[in-house]
Design goal:
Blueprint (H helix, E strand, L loop, with lengths): L18 H19 L6 H10 L2 E6 L5 H11 L7 E6 L2 H15 L7 E5 L2 E3 L6 E5 H10 L6 E6 L7 H16 L4 E6 L4 H7 L5 E4 L6 E4 L8 H15 L4 E5 L3 H18 L6 E6 L5 H4 L11 E6 L2 H4 L6 E6 L2 E8 L4 E8 L2 H9 L7 E5 L3 H7 L14 H9 L16 H13 L11 H7 L5 H9 L6 H12 L12 H10 L7 H14 L4 H6 L4 H20 L11 H12 L3 E4 L5 E3 L5 E4 L12 E9 L3 E8 L2 H7 L6 H4 L19
Parallel strand pairs: 1-7, 1-8, 2-5, 2-6, 3-5, 6-7, 9-16, 10-12, 10-13, 11-12, 13-16, 19-21
Antiparallel strand pairs: 3-4, 14-15, 17-18, 17-20, 18-19, 20-21
Helix pairs in contact: 3-4, 5-6, 8-9, 14-15, 14-16, 16-17, 17-18, 17-23, 18-20, 18-22
The structure holds adenosine-5'-diphosphate and magnesium ion.
Adenosine-5'-diphosphate binds next to α3 and α4.
EC number: 3.6.4.13
GO molecular function, one term: RNA helicase activity
Catalytic activity: ATP + H2O = ADP + phosphate + H(+)
Length: 680
């Protein structure tokens, strides 16, 4: 490895040169002093000793004790990076980025050099990298290219208590490679006390406890249930701000939209309070928050002001924000749920577990006594909340993980060493889907299609769509669509005071009722034609940031196409070819309009609706294919394209029979509904 640095023995000489550099030096020294104040610091030697003596170690310590930022540095200082990198996995990408940024500061190096991070579609590492923070999903993908992880000397599976799907699969894989790589050190670190379970799983690995400093936290419940927790959270924040002694506030909300709403309302109401009240600094933090704004939550609050952090679950254990004295916990989070019968997955606002509630409360007592305001009753807490959150593996679609394991040559999935096995039904469903997508053959073996699909870090249906674009000669178009889909629902910008303009601009891309996928393609291509103009984005109510991300993702998908030897060809004038390609990946997501004016999914006869944001929401084509279902007030199909029913039988004859798609055109349909495009 080139230029391995020796942590403490930093070469200061060059830095003395300029004033700016000496300022950097004193900042670095200050950071070194801060490092020594962390609860983990007194245990440095003991910890290094334990790592030396044991191949696998379970580490438990309160959030904020220094596990994530310090342990990899200690190991580096002790020489573990001489023969390989140190990987530290995080369930959330914001955490991976933010922690890597912090550690690079502490080591006085540029982010992406000695300390880097790797998240999906963004690799901020280099030849020099020795400490690599990464999402658990990315380490899982690295197994595909390097099944023994030989570039690593240490793997730290951090935030193990989160029990994400990728973390659970990693457990099985790292446990296996540790057997034939005695030189590999394995650390499993967790913020909660269920360490026994990890220890049992890893053949009774010793548990290293980092005693935390914890101050008492006063817990308050509401007397009666809150009808509107968002409003209650805002009111409580303001009450704390005007009545309580100094100290920052942390509010747990469920997602970006909710956080943005809260931010807007808070800004509005604090303006109404006048100048007698101290300044309230509002800091949102969620997964898609742009990097440059993420750092803001860590900036110290100026004297006389108060900070209110509006966060998702990410602040529960992944990120520690210093100075928090008050926590507001409405008691909800967004959680995936999966119905193995229908194969439908939805993201639902769900009550948290008691374990989560405890973690949230704990965030207020890190630097002094704190207060937690739970926006639910003590009765609710004791009777309605589960003790622990169900591990993701037991409530999610497993198709992508099964494809990854199959490509690792792990065939006997029923006997994979799961810490908690997934429901057999869900495994079966995943195998069925992969078979339907032609990724597996009848014997359950990976096909050529499957091998190609596995190269893409995407959901198998999206990967299949991309692989199928070869046949329809539209790979160039389809990767633009895939990239636009993968940046989520943040392409179109709809300011409250300009909704009509924004909607008109959006509908321009839907001319001819081409459907949402092709509208996304048109957006991308139009932007490209303006040479990626920011001005064009403003004029069309398009979020330039999302577009740039889509462009990055697209570039990477183009690289992967080359790897699987699919030529880049555009077929933009043949919309049917593009729609057939979409159908090749998404045929399990087809729905048909009923006489009642509602849609039913073809395979499972579930009632669904076209999302109001869709360009086809008023058109109601008779047959559609959709990207995803979201459950809000109803089951909505999001990103919808019209299809011809005969395509289903042509493309997926093993999945649909003629009787499934017989067009009952004699039956009466509501006026205006069910006409195909050609009828218009
Ligand atoms: P743990 O992993 O045990 O929860 P961390 O190593 O994440 O603890 O945090 C240790 C300290 O580093 C905390 O005081 C935290 O505030 C600080 N810290 C972590 N990330 C950042 C960051 N991006 N910016 C500023 N401080 C940070
Ligand atoms: Mg941590």
């Amino acid at each position: 490895k080139a230029s391995v640095m020796d942590g403490d023995k930093f070469d200061y000489e060059e830095m003395e040169d300029s004033l700016e550099k000496s300022r950097a030096k004193s900042a670095l020294e200050a950071l070194q002093e801060e490092r020594k104040k962390l609860p983990i610091y007194p245990y440095r030697e003991e910890l290094l000793q334990a790592v030396q003596e044991h191949q696998v170690l379970v580490i438990v310590g309160e959030t904020g004790s220094g596990k994530t930022t310090q342990i990899p540095q200690y190991l580096h200082e002790a020489g573990y990076t001489k023969h390989g990198m140190i990987a530290c996995t995080q369930p959330r990408r914001v955490a991976a980025m933010s922690v890597a940024a912090r550690v690079s500061q502490e080591m006085g190096v540029k982010l992406g050099h000695e300390v880097g991070y790797s998240i999906r579609f963004e690799d901020c590492t280099s030849e020099k990298t020795i400490l690599k923070y990464m999402t658990d999903g990315m380490l899982l993908r690295e197994f595909l290219g390097e099944p023994d992880l030989s570039s690593y000397s240490v793997v730290m599976v951090d935030e193990a208590h989160e029990r994400t799907l990728s973390t659970d699969i990693l457990f099985g894989l790292v446990k296996d490679i540790a057997r034939f790589r005695p030189d590999l050190k394995l650390l499993i670190s967790s913020a909660t006390l269920d360490a026994e379970k990890f220890s049992d799983y890893f053949d009774s690995a010793p548990i290293f406890k980092i005693p935390g400093r914890r101050y008492p936290v006063e817990i308050n419940f509401t007397k009666a249930p809150e009808a509107d927790y968002l409003d209650a959270a805002i009111v409580t924040s303001l009450q704390i701000h005007v009545t309580q002694p100094p100290g920052d506030i942390l509010v747990f909300l469920t997602g970006q939209e909710e956080i943005e709403t809260a931010e807007e309302i808070l800004k509005h109401r604090t303006r109404g309070l006048g100048t007698k009240i101290a300044e309230l600094i509002i800091c949102p933090i969620y997964a898609n928050l742009p990097t440059e704004l993420q750092a803001k939550i860590f900036e110290p609050t100026p004297e006389g002001a108060r900070k209110v952090v509006l966060a998702t679950n990410i602040a529960e254990t992944s990120l520690t924000i210093d100075g928090i004295k008050y926590v507001i916990d409405p008691g909800f989070c967004k959680m995936k749920s999966y119905n193995p019968r229908t194969g439908m997955e939805s993201l639902l606002v769900t009550p948290i577990s008691k374990a989560s509630a405890m973690q949230r409360a704990g965030r207020s007592g890190r630097t002094g006594p704190g207060k937690c305001f739970r926006l639910y009753t003590a009765y609710n807490y004791h009777n309605d909340l589960d003790d622990n959150t169900v591990p993701e593996i037991q409530r999610t679609n497993l198709a992508s993980v099964v494809l990854a394991l199959k490509s690792l040559g792990i065939h006997d999935l029923l006997h994979f060493d799961f810490m908690d096995p997934p429901p057999a039904e869900a495994l079966l469903k995943a195998l069925e889907l992969l078979f339907a997508l032609s990724a597996l053959n009848k014997l359950g073996e990976l096909t050529k299609v499957g091998r190609r699909m596995a190269e893409f870090p995407l959901d198998p249906m999206l990967s299949k769509m991309i692989v199928a674009s070869e046949k329809y000669k539209c790979s160039d178009d389809i990767i633009s669509i895939a990239a636009m889909l993968s940046v989520g629902n943040s392409i179109f910008y709809r300011p409250k005071d300009k909704q009509v303009h924004a909607d008109n601009a959006r509908m321009n891309f839907h001319t001819g009722n081409v459907g949402d996928h092709i509208a996304l393609l048109k957006v991308y291509n139009s932007w490209k034609e303006t040479n990626f103009s920011t001005q064009w984005c403003y004029e069309n109510y398009i979020q330039v940031r999302s577009m740039k991300r889509a462009r990055d993702v697209r570039d990477q998908l183009a690289g992967l196409l080359e790897r699987v030897e699919i030529e880049l060809t555009s077929n933009a004038n043949d919309l049917d070819a593009i729609k057939k390609t979409i159908t090749s990946g998404f045929f399990p997501h087809s729905a048909r309009l009923q006489k009642s004016g509602l849609y039913r999914t073809v395979k499972h006869s579930q009632t669904v609706h076209i999302h109001p944001s869709s360009g086809l929401a008023q058109v109601l084509p008779r047959w559609v294919v959709y990207h995803e279902l979201v459950l809000t007030t109803k089951e909505y199909m999001r990103q919808v394209t019209e299809l011809k029913p005969e395509w289903l039988v042509e493309i997926a004859p093993h999945y649909y029979q003629l009787k499934d798609v017989e067009d009952s055109s004699s039956k009466k349909l509501p006026r205006g509904a069910g006409r195909t495009q050609e009828d218009r």
